[in-house]
Amino acid sequence: MLAKQRRSGYAHFMPLLPSLNPRIVDALHAEALGLADQVRTRFERLRQETNQIVADDEDLRRVQVSCEALRTTTRVMHCLAWLLNHRAHFAGELSELQLRRHGRLIANFPDSDREVVANLPQDVQALVHDSQRLYQRIQRLEQAWRSEAIANGSAVQRLRDRLARAVEDHSSAA
């Protein structure tokens, strides 16, 4: 069956791909919360360790650690915000229109400086990479979710179509 679908194009795979649903969002939310806590705790400890070094050339290192801590924390917080918006939508607290308007993930969040990350302890490097992978996963979900909406037509387009049909029905009945 898959071989036949491969020959007939990508559109046939869409039903086989998992759609965004509350279970996926909840699992990612739990993962992001755990990661946010780990990032905050570990970078705080790293800042304290870095502040104990009094060499003049360590000022740059302190700034780099602070910038990377902020960048990594912000990356995870953006993921959490996106996930919280989707949780609110699934709970009926946000309409689809509100979610599409205000629930966007920042498209081009800056990557971490590879040289700075390479100079961090291994466990901190792993946290930075974990935050980047989480962000990339959420980005893929965002793109798929928005592409699915385009393929299915937006809520506004569906409303226009219904209005057009209603006008046609009314005109033909008259």
Task: Pick out the low-confidence regions.
Answer: 1-17
The structure class reads: mainly alpha
Order of helices and strands: HHHHHHH
Helix content: over 70%
Alpha plus pi helix count = 7
**What fraction of the residues are assigned to beta strands by DSSP?**
under 5%
User: Averaged pLDDT, please?
Assistant: 84
What is the general shape?
elongated
End-to-end separation: 49 Å
Specify Rg, calculated over alpha carbons.
Answer: 23 Å
Account of the 3D structure:
It is built from 7 helices and no strands. It has helices at 2-8, 22-51, 58-90, 96-102, 114-118, 122-152, 155-173. The radius of gyration is 23 Å and the shape is elongated.
Fold blueprint:
Blueprint: H1 2-8, H2 22-51, H3 58-90, H4 96-102, H5 114-118, H6 122-152, H7 155-173
Question: What characteristics describe this protein?
Answer:
7 helices, 76% helix, 174 residues, elongated, mainly alpha
Short description:
The protein is mainly α. It has helices at residues 2-8, 22-51, 58-90, 96-102, 114-118, 122-152, 155-173.
